[in-house]
Design brief:
This protein has 647 residues and is mainly alpha-helical. It has 19 helices and twelve strands.
């Protein structure tokens, strides 16, 4: 790597040595052959993200006509890729560097239009930088720039968010941060330019990706699962017909003989799952590509939704990504995993694979892609699990880089076509611009709503803190916590009904069981007489008394706590008098506390505890106090199981 040294420009100043034109732009990756003096840097050999479009990691400086600006842009890109300013700040990735250069291009284009005399960074002033800041914040449509896309044209009087303004201002901040490595240093806002100044506070920011609405998610998932479970067999036969046709055309240019593949009955719909093949007016290749596109989208929907992986992580999956954990005693699969490369949490240039534990449906979706697309992988020498539509044509490009792996952009196109097809073919009106990233967020919301879901979500998404996952899943700002509270209340009402059923079957124990049943019956009677009620899915009237009782339920491993501060054995007298008193579940005495209720679901756990004690009693000799303690524990567990502890 080119070492950074300085030479004195005069007695007061020191400027960095200019980087040699023949210096490799990324010395740590020999496959990147571009040198500093070239006006186009292809950084793709250093980009480990297989799901990107071509050329997104190529930086072009051809468009910069001012030599000093071109030098500044090149130096910034070089040092962003290679120079660490501190032990805690790493170099950026080739993709991020290319994106930053695109944003710098916007600023330089703006200078060319509104301040053409600024021929170099040395001529920048605070007034000019602030004027750009204000232009980004709000400008009329006719004040836009030529040759610059993305948020450039807008209606008069409209503004953009602080996060977007900061994104476009960040290259100017980088010029400041790396000023000691650039030949023309500049300090915007006296070095105080930051996100908050642009109206963006990144602390505690929650993910803004919306979850998929239920009215979209339900038909989407159900149709996708049917493709994975049933429809893929007919599509596999379509693949056989198309490949045979392409081979015959190469030999003697024979006309299309027609489909031998047929459309079977859908067991869920009790009718053919799509119109017969060959009725469409377009060419057979188009009909085939449309259906293979739907299959890929369906498998992607199942995998993304059930794994929580990012779209880019799905795009990078290899054909051998599926892993099985086998029970040595039965030979059955007890756990499925999908192995791939994460897009975050990398350490330097080490790209370590990780596993996503998935249910069987996601594993089946992987297997469908493995099987149906294998002939096309063989044609192109590809190892990608999912392929781009360019792979499904009779005469593909011979030198296509990457083996036709699907990209994030292509994936979104497949999903949008899939949604449109569902709306038309299955008469399920859906008008929604689906984004692949929404599946991860939607799964997060689902996990967060389950018992102990915030903790489970933190573990599943590898977040450092539960608060990070909670912020990702949603917050009170968008009604998330209120929604969770409502659903938790309804879940507790269902638990009350389950406890009533346990009591009817003689399976409800614990000191608080009798009081609970009495309060529950009284609450239901009072609810009937209330004028305004709502119902759960079980059509149970929710009056004030029933809601109050449901809110008192706390779910423990060995019992339910129907909390009342006066009866709580886990609280001191002082703690019980506090207005916001809550139970200490980890200090519960389930067979002694007047709030405790043991349901049928807890009995197997108590039996397991009793089995352990009995095994200890049979083991090696123990002291008198130990034997007495085990005997007392066994009596306690038997008392709970038999219902003797019932109040």
């Amino acid at each position: 790597m080119n070492q950074h040294v300085t030479i004195p420009a005069n007695d007061a100043d020191a400027l960095p040595v200019r980087i040699r034109d023949d210096q490799p732009v990324l010395p740590s990756v020999p496959e990147v052959i571009a040198s500093f003096g070239e006006d186009e840097w292809d950084l793709s050999p250093a980009d480990h993200h297989d799901g990107r479009e071509d050329n997104v990691t190529t930086i072009s400086f051809v468009w910069i006509t001012r030599p000093e600006w071109k030098l500044a842009a090149k130096e910034l890109a070089y040092h962003r890729l290679n120079t660490r300013l501190s032990a805690t700040q790493r170099q950026i990735s080739p993709y991020t560097c290319a994106r930053e250069q695109i944003r710098l291009k916007r600023f330089i284009r703006w200078l060319e239009k509104y301040h053409p005399r600024v021929a170099s960074p040395a001529q920048l002033s605070q007034i000019i930088v602030h004027a750009y800041h204000m232009w980004l914040k709000s400008h009329d449509d006719d004040e836009g720039l030529d040759g610059v896309a993305g948020g450039n044209k807008r209606e008069a009087g409209t503004t953009i968010g602080g996060d977007t303004i900061w994104t476009y201002m960040s290259p100017i901040k980088s010029l400041d941060v790396y000023r000691d490595h650039l030949n023309v240093p500049f300090r915007p806002y006296g070095g105080k330019l930051n996100a908050k100044m642009c109206g963006f506070d990144s602390s505690g920011v929650e993910n803004s990706t919306p979850p998929i609405p239920d009215e979209v998610l339900h038909p989407l998932i159900s149709t996708a699962v049917r493709y994975v479970e049933h429809y893929h067999r007919d599509i596999r036969n379509m693949v056989r017909d198309v490949l045979a046709f392409w081979q015959q055309v190469d030999v003697d240019r024979s006309p299309w003989p027609g489909w031998t593949a047929s459309i079977g009955q859908c067991p869920d719909l009790n009718k053919p799952w799509r119109p017969p093949l060959g009725l469409a007016e377009h060419h057979v290749n188009h009909e085939f590509r449309a259906e293979i596109s739907h299959l890929i989208a369906a498998c992607a929907v199942v995998i993304l939704y059930l794994s929580g992986m990012r779209p880019g992580e799905f795009a990078r999956l290899r054909v051998d990504c599926l892993r099985r954990t086998i029970d040595p005693n039965t030979g059955e699969v007890v756990r499925w995993k999908i192995r791939g490369f994460p897009l975050k949490k990398r350490k330097g240039k080490v790209h370590k694979e990780v596993d996503w534990v998935v249910p069987k449906a996601a594993a089946e979706a992987v297997q469908v892609l493995q099987e149906v697309l294998q002939p096309f992988r063989d044609r192109h020498g590809s190892r990608h699990l999912a392929l781009n539509l360019d792979a499904f044509q009779p005469y593909p490009e011979k030198d296509k880089r990457g083996g036709y792996g699907i990209t994030e952009r292509s994936l979104r196109g497949r999903l949008l076509n899939f949604v449109e097809m569902i709306s038309k073919r299955y008469e399920t009106p859906i008008s929604y611009q689906l984004m692949p990233s929404q599946f991860r967020r939607t799964l997060a919301r689902h996990i967060a709503r389950q018992p102990f879901g915030i903790i489970a979500g933190k573990l599943h998404y590898n977040h450092v803190k539960t608060s990070i996952f909670e912020g990702y899943a949603g917050s009170s700002d968008d009604g998330f916590r209120l929604e969770v509270a409502d659903e938790e209340l309804l879940a507790h009402v269902d638990l009350l009904e389950e406890m009533q059923q346990d009591a009817d079957e003689g399976q409800l124990f614990g000191p608080g069981a009798s009081a609970l049943l009495r309060d529950y019956q009284n609450a239901k009677r009072s609810a009937v007489g209330e004028a305004q009620i709502d119902t759960s899915s079980g059509q149970i009237a929710l009056g004030a008394a029933l809601k109050s009782l449901a809110k008192r339920i706390h779910v423990g491993m060995l019992n339910f706590c129907i909390f009342s501060a006066e009866k709580a054995a886990c609280l001191t007298e002082k703690e019980a008098r506090e207005q916001d008193a809550q139970p200490k579940i980890n200090q519960c005495s389930p067979d002694q506390c007047g709030n405790s209720v043991v349901g049928a679901c807890h009995v197997p756990l108590w039996k397991g505890l009793l089995d352990e004690v009995e095994e200890l009693q049979k083991s090696a000799p123990r002291s008198g106090p130990q034997r007495a303690s085990l005997t007392e524990q066994a009596k306690r567990y038997r008392r709970v199981i038999s219902g003797v502890a019932n109040a």
